[in-house]
Design brief:
This protein has 8 helices and 12 strands. The protein has a 5-stranded parallel beta sheet, with helices on both faces. The longest helix is centred in the middle third of the chain and has 17 residues. The protein is elongated. Helices cover 43% and strands 22% of the residues. It has 221 residues and is of the alpha/beta class. Helix 2 packs parallel to helix 3, helix 6 crosses helix 7 and helix 6 packs across helix 8. Helix 3 links the parallel strand 3 and strand 4.
């Protein structure tokens, strides 16, 4: 799969290129907005990683033009601008996902794979559904029935992990490691606290089961 990284910071561009190539992607780079737009339209990549603060043509202007000419193309914004207004504007212009700097490279790769998988399947790369639950990956919202719920970063990551492993029992230790990055902290109750908060937000229809002495499971029924 071909990825174009539009990023004006050489160090970040080189880091992303090396890392993504190690993950098996073919990567090209562009250091400014006009070059990025030209390469997107000529090289026909499968996905674009887009910074917003670009010389020549800012990222949102690039995104607007890509939405006009290649609306099916997944675009993942990676930017130091993390305010809600900028994120919503990006989504409104057609961004598939938005990741604020500094970011976890592993999380970026996971999001890229989600977008590519949905693009290949012809689906909406922003939305994952399991049972009664719909998770909007771009807006970080969960929907059960007619109820739409905004999630904090940690609530979203916790629920996203359960969605990715729907029907499986996921242990507390695994959640600590993969969502919080704690490799061993038996005294921490952050999983339980976040789970209570998440269930309260989702309401009584939340399809999250507690499996005694084992962990949690998201029901796909």
């Amino acid at each position: 799969m071909r990825i174009l990284v539009i990023e004006d910071e050489p160090r970040i561009l080189a880091f992303l290129a090396r890392g993504l190539e190690a993950e098996g992607f073919s990567v090209r780079g562009a250091a400014n907005g006009p070059e990025g737009l030209k390469r997107t339209l000529s090289d026909r990549p499968d996905l674009v990683i887009l910074d917003l603060r670009l010389p020549g043509l800012d990222g949102l202007s690039v995104l607007r033009e890509l939405q006009r000419q290649r609306p099916e193309l997944p675009v993942v914004i990676v930017s130091a601008r993390s305010d809600l207004q900028t994120k919503l504007r990006g989504f409104g212009l057609g961004a598939s996902d938005y990741l604020a700097k500094p970011f976890s490279f592993d999380e970026l790769v996971a999001r890229i794979r989600v977008q590519l998988r949905h693009a290949q399947n012809g689906g909406d790369g922003n939305v994952v559904q399991t049972g009664p639950l719909t998770l909007d990956l771009a807006r970080r919202q969960a929907c059960i029935g007619a109820v739409v719920t905004d999630l904090s970063d940690r609530e979203f990551r916790l629920l996203h992990h359960l969605v990715e492993h729907s029907g499986e029992v996921v242990s507390r230790e695994r959640l600590l490691s993969e969502v919080w990055g704690y490799h061993f902290d038996p005294g921490s109750n952050v999983v339980e606290v976040c789970m209570r908060r998440l269930r309260k937000k989702l309401g009584p229809e939340a399809p999250i089961e507690t499996i005694r002495n084992a962990g949690y499971r998201l029901s796909a029924a």
